[in-house]
Design goal:
Blueprint (H helix, E strand, L loop, with lengths): L25 H9 L3 E5 L5 E6 L26 H14 L1 E10 L5 E11 L4 E8 L1 H37 L3 E6 L5 E4 L1 H7 L17 H17 L5 E4 L5 E11 L2 E9 L1 H4 L7 H7 L4 E5 L5 E4 L1 H6 L23 H12 L1 E10 L5 E11 L6 E8 L1 H4 L5 H13 L7 H23 L4 H8 L3 H10 L5 H9 L1
Antiparallel strand pairs: 1-2, 1-5, 3-4, 4-5, 6-7, 6-10, 8-9, 9-10, 11-12, 11-15, 13-14, 14-15
C-alpha cells in the first residue's frame, strides 16, 4: 500500500537568477520540483546553493535555513558517509544511485529522505532530488508494533493453553469435550482414558454415548439437551456397560463459532479420592520396592516414590494415565505378555525384565503382579524389585544381547528390514560365539565342538567379528 503523500505542487521554485542554475532550464526545474518532495542545488564544494520544495509540508518549509550550509552538515552522523559517496559518484560518473539519509530539521525532528543526484553541465554543481520517507517510516513502525503485539498475544494464548492442558490432564475426574452437533469426542483427558480402559487419544472421534446402557444413553441425551437449552443442568446418574456407576454433569460453551460440551464423569473412586487413605496405602507409598496400580489395560492409576525413582521421574502426575509399558519391559513385548498372562492366571511371580528410566538408565528388575478383576474398579497391582545388584556378578551376555537388540529396534523406520535382519543375525552370532568361548575358557577347539562348527569355520567367524587374537591365528596355522 502506497504511503499517503501531499499533492505534488511546487510551493517553492528554484531561484532562477542564481549562477548555479545557469544550465537548468525553467521547464526542467518545474518537472524536477513536481517529481520530488525536495531538491537541492549543491556546488562543487558540497555547499547547498538553492533548494525547491514539491510539497506544502510545514516541516519542509523550514529548510531555507540550509541554503549556504554544507550538504553533509545537514544530516546525522551515520548518514555523512552516504553524502560523501554521492558526491564522489557524481564527480566520477555524473550521477549517483538512490541512497537514503536522515536529516535533522531546524526544529530537531528527524527527516528521512531518499536521494538521487546528477551533475549539472560542466560547472561541477549537482542537483539532488529527494523523496520524503516519513510516511513510509511511520507505516513500517506501525507494522513492527503490530507484529510485536501479535507475538505477545500469541505467547499469551500459548501460556493460557498450557495451563488449561495441565489442569485438564491432572483432573481426577474423567473429562470429555464433545462437538455440539455430532456429539463426537473432540478431546479427552487421561482420567477419561482410564475410565474407559483405552488410551485417551483413542477416544477422540468416537460418538457419545460411550459404553452406556440404554437408560444411560437416554439420560445423557436429556442432560446434553437441557444443558444446550438452559446453559446448565442437574447431575445425572449413568451406568457403564461393565456396571460401573458414574455421576455426569455438563456445561456448554462456544469456541471458533462452534458449540461444544464439557462433560464430566465422576466415579465413586474419584469421589473418595480426597478421603483419608488407609494405613496400608501409606505403607506401600513408602515401600522400598516399586509399587504401581494400573488399569487392566496397563495405564497407571497410582505409583509410589520408589517407582518414580526407578524410572527417573520427579512427580507422580507425570506418569498417571500413561502405559506402564513406557518404562517397563521391551517396547511392545513384555508388558502385553504380562497382562495377557494376568487375565488368564490372575497372578504372576518374579518375572525377570528391565525398567527404563526417563533419562535412559536401564535397570534389571523382577516383577510380581495380581489382577483384581472383581473389584469395584478393576485394576492390576505391580510390585517391581530392582535386582541389578543381585545379577551384577552373573553372566552379562543375555542382558547385553537384549540391550543391543533394543538399540537396533530404535533404527526401525530409518534402516531397511534386510539390513536390520543382517545386523541382528551378526549380533546374535557374535553373542553365541562369545558365550561358547566363555563357557570353554577360551578353548577354540572345545568352543567349535559346543557350537557344532569345524575349527576352520570358527576361526573364520572369529576374524569376521574381530574376536580372533594372535594366539588363535597361530593355533589355526598349526592346525
Amino acid at each position: 500500500m502506497a504511503a499517503p503523500r501531499a499533492p505534488a505542487r511546487a510551493t517553492r521554485a528554484f531561484s532562477g537568477g542564481r549562477t548555479a542554475l545557469a544550465h537548468l532550464e525553467p521547464e526542467a526545474a518545474s518537472v524536477l520540483v513536481s517529481a520530488s518532495d525536495l531538491a537541492f542545488i549543491v556546488d562543487r564544494e558540497g555547499v547547498v546553493r538553492d533548494l525547491a520544495l514539491g510539497s506544502g509540508d510545514p516541516t519542509l518549509a523550514q529548510l531555507d535555513a540550509w541554503v549556504g550550509r554544507r550538504w553533509i552538515d545537514t544530516v546525522v552522523a551515520d548518514s555523512r558517509p552516504k553524502i560523501e559517496a554521492m558526491l564522489r559518484d557524481v564527480a566520477a560518473s555524473g550521477h549517483s544511485p538512490k541512497r537514503q539519509v536522515n536529516h535533522v530539521t531546524p526544529d530537531g525532528t528527524d527527516l528521512p529522505v531518499a536521494y538521487t543526484a546528477v551533475r549539472l553541465g560542466e560547472s561541477g554543481s549537482l542537483v539532488a532530488s529527494g523523496r520524503d520517507l516519513r510516511a513510509l517510516a511511520q507505516m513500517q513502525q506501525r507494522l513492527v508494533e503490530t507484529q510485536q503485539a501479535m507475538e505477545r498475544d500469541y505467547w499469551r494464548l500459548r501460556h493460557v493453553e498450557t495451563r488449561y492442558r495441565l489442569l485438564f490432564q491432572l483432573s481426577s475426574e474423567a473429562v470429555l469435550v464433545l462437538d455440539g452437533q455430532t456429539r463426537k469426542v473432540v478431546d479427552a483427558n487421561a482420567a477419561a482414558g482410564t475410565l474407559f480402559g483405552v488410551a485417551a487419544d483413542r477416544l477422540v472421534g468416537r460418538a457419545a454415548p460411550l459404553e452406556l446402557d440404554r437408560d444411560g444413553e437416554r439420560a445423557l441425551d436429556r442432560l446434553l439437551t437441557d444443558t444446550r437449552r438452559d446453559g446448565r443442568a442437574d447431575e445425572v446418574a449413568l451406568t457403564l456397560r461393565d456396571g460401573l456407576a458414574v455421576r455426569a454433569s455438563a456445561s456448554c460453551f462456544r469456541q471458533d463459532a462452534q458449540t461444544l460440551f464439557l462433560l464430566r464423569l465422576a466415579t465413586p473412586a474419584a469421589a473418595r479420592a480426597a478421603a483419608p487413605r488407609p494405613a496400608v496405602v501409606d505403607l506401600l507409598a513408602q515401600a522400598p520396592d516399586a509399587f504401581v496400580v494400573t488399569t487392566p489395560a496397563g495405564e497407571i492409576l497410582s505409583a509410589n516414590r520408589a517407582f518414580l525413582d526407578l524410572v527417573e521421574v520427579g512427580e507422580e502426575a507425570q506418569v498417571l494415565g500413561r502405559p506402564i509399558a513406557d518404562w517397563m519391559g521391551r517396547p511392545g513385548a513384555d508388558v502385553p505378555v504380562l497382562l495377557s498372562m494376568l487375565r488368564k492366571h490372575g497372578a504372576l511371580r518374579l518375572v525377570a525384565t528391565a525398567a527404563r528410566g526417563q533419562l535412559g538408565a536401564v535397570t534389571e528388575v523382577e516383577v510380581s503382579a495380581v489382577l483384581a478383576a472383581d473389584a469395584e474398579v478393576p485394576s492390576v497391582a505391580f510390585v517391581i524389585r530392582d535386582v541389578s545388584r543381585r545379577v551384577a556378578g552373573g553372566v552379562q551376555g543375555a542382558r547385553d544381547l537384549t540391550r543391543a537388540v533394543e538399540n537396533l529396534t530404535t533404527l526401525v523406520g530409518r534402516v531397511s528390514l534386510p539390513e536390520l535382519l543382517r545386523e541382528t543375525t551378526e549380533l546374535v552370532e557374535r553373542h553365541f560365539i562369545e558365550a561358547a568361548l566363555e563357557l570353554t575358557h577360551d578353548n577354540r577347539t572345545a568352543a567349535a565342538e559346543v557350537l557344532g562348527l569345524s575349527r576352520q569355520s570358527l576361526y573364520l567367524k572369529l576374524r569376521r567379528h574381530k574376536l580372533s587374537s594372535g594366539d588363535a591365528e597361530a593355533e589355526q596355522g598349526q592346525g
